[in-house]
Amino acid sequence: MIEDLAERKAQARRVVRQLKKDYADAECALNFDSPFQLLIATILSAQCTDVRVNIVTKDLFAKYPTAHDMAVAPVKTLEKMVQTTGFFRNKAKNIHAASQALVDDYDGEVPQDLAKLVELPGVGRKTANVVLGTAFGIPSGIVVDTHVGRLTRRLGLTEKADAVKVEEELMEVVPKKEWIDFSHRLIHHGRAVCNARKPKCEACHFLKFCPQEGVS
DNA sequence: ATCCCGAGGG
DNA sequence: CCCTCTGGAT
What we know:
With 216 residues, the chain is an all-alpha fold. It folds into 2 domains: 5-27 and 142-209, Helix-hairpin-Helix base-excision DNA repair enzymes (C-terminal) (Endonuclease Iii, domain 2), CATH 1.10.1670; 35-136, Hypothetical protein, domain 2 (Endonuclease III, domain 1), CATH 1.10.340.30. The chain is built from 11 helices and no strands. Helix 1 crosses helix 11 and helix 5 (75-82) packs across helix 6 (88-106). It is elongated, with a radius of gyration of 18 Å. 37% of the residues are buried. The mean pLDDT is 90. It binds a DNA duplex (10 and 10 nucleotides) through helix 3, helix 6, helix 8, helix 9 and helix 11.
């Protein structure tokens, strides 16, 4: 257990250094042509692989490329188009309502502001941080999804379960200039090596400073 | 059976 | 804090 702040900072430096070594070219795996499309793709990515999101958004963005287009789309049509991403009724309702809100309040543009983004239907801190970081290059927070939460806990950077608390603790120990790439790289590592079910500890370059030394 | 780049509501 | 929404992948 790493409890001391200085100790967690030291651990964070090791993690950041190894992430840069292993995942130098971190990039968002979601396909998009605009901040609006990234926002929609990120809403759809809940409990769903990015590969499937990209399959769905290919047709979705061809038909409704902008907030103005999606705001006037029939919700039933949206439900059918996003059906295979799961939670499809909520997601269809949210992407429709969020598009309408963007048209009403921001002339169809995506605001570059965390508080305004989080007010949009279906947009929480995770989605807002993805859009601000990846579409606008603004490190307004650290994206904490299921991968980032799991890996930072395994690596001893936090012991919190709540995503907001995890983000707070990470922001204490990870330099701000690293925030955007930090999450992308952890997510890549979480998918490729340190996955939830059967982590490949024998192939993991982080093992030498991982407190788990093999999770069950 | 269990997890996937969550959010909203109770 | 908990629960619900949901299909796909393994």
